[in-house]
Amino acid sequence: MSLNGCQSDLSTLADYHIHTVLCKHAEKGVADYKTAAQGRNISEICFSDHGPNPDGYDPSHRMEMRQFLSYKQMVASLQDGKAPKVLFGIETDYYEGCQKFLGEWLPRQRFDFVIGSVHYIEAWGFDNPAKSRVWESVDVTVTWRKYFELVGRLADSGLFDAVSHLDLPKKFGYRPPDKALKEMVQPALDRIARAGMGIELNTSGLRKPVGEIYPSPLILSMAHERGIPVCFGSDAHTPEDVGAGFDLALRLACEAGYKSYFNMSRRSM
Ligand code: ZN
Ligand code: FE
Ligand code: FE
Ligand code: ZN
């Protein structure tokens, strides 16, 4: 799908990151998200709820394995030929040892889109508001470096189509200097490019203390240099947030040099 200069029509955009009540921290029904997308002229949506992990990883922020079938049915019930088109996706965390379950389970589910996230550094949920005070007691640059090493491994795993909220550690405003940031982002982006993956312009950061889209313009232009394709995601946990901030995201993509974005229902740029 193309971006015509910076004037692209918002109505052709797709929102590839939408949650459901099954994750235990979102609200309203899936049909409400679809209706919200209709009202905003979004052409396509993808539910990418937090995937189940029977190995016991972070159970309080995701559906149970026994709920997976109802997730599938909820999404399928909206695939009725009426616009917007509804895709079936999942937001899956990368963590040490995740391949044991995910390597076997993910490929069998026939998802339209698998977005990979890192929400934990060791046992610390670094983007969890209840744990944000920990940022005061860690070395910020070292922490970000650990994060991007995990993102690199996420890419190497070959399990995911794209990386979500690529610079999530900035959520509460703690960031390394640009020079250090560039040094740690380069190898991670190289690994994402090598894996043939995309990244997401995630607008949820606009609603967080940092008040910015993920990733930053600096990182986005580095991704563009490597030919890494982009998509758009609101990370909506409530219908009002579907497509939120997409005008800004579009401008950011254009300013970084992007002329197109990828579309999973066509599996092309
Ligand atoms: Zn969530
Ligand atoms: Fe996430
Ligand atoms: Fe999400
Ligand atoms: Zn997310």
Description:
The protein has helices at about 30-40, 70-75, 100-105, 140-155, 180-195, 215-225, 245-255, and strands spanning about 15-20, 45-50, 85-95, 115, 160-165, 200, 230-235. With about 270 residues, the protein is an alpha/beta fold. The chain has one domain (about 10-255): Metal-dependent hydrolases (TIM Barrel), CATH 3.20.20. It has a seven-stranded parallel β-sheet with strand order 1-2-3-4-5-6-7. Strand 1, helix 1 (about 30-40) and strand 2 (about 45-50) form a beta-alpha-beta unit. Helix 4 (about 140-155) runs parallel beside helix 5 (about 180-195) and helix 5 (about 180-195) packs parallel to helix 6. The mean pLDDT is about 95. The site of one zinc ion (ZN) has 5 residues, from loops.
Shape: globular
Which series of helices and strands comes N to C? EHEHEHEHEHEHEH
Mean pLDDT: 94
Number of helices: 7
CATH secondary-structure class:
Alpha Beta
Largest sheet: 7 strands, parallel
Residue runs with pLDDT of under 50 for 5 or more positions: none
What is the radius of gyration? 17 Å
Kindly report the name of the CATH homologous superfamily: Metal-dependent hydrolases
- Measured distance between first and last alpha carbons: 6 Å
Bound molecules: zinc ion, fe (iii) ion
Number of strands: 7
Report the CATH architecture. Alpha-Beta Barrel
